[in-house]
Design a protein that fits this description.
Blueprint: H1 5-30, H2 32-39, H3 47-58
Helix pairs in contact: 1-2
Amino acid sequence: RARTCREMSRVTMANFELEYSRYSTILHKTTFQWNERLLEPPIKITEESRNISMQDLTQ
């Protein structure tokens, strides 16, 4: 039987959320600085704190 529009959108959203979480995890690991700028409030991050963050991620 054909799926209703609501069922389809629910499946699509679930897939999207899964893909997005996977994507943002990869993004966070690979391009931490860019992701940081994207998600955090616009505060100036010092070089020192960025280095610490990078070290935490690579361990």
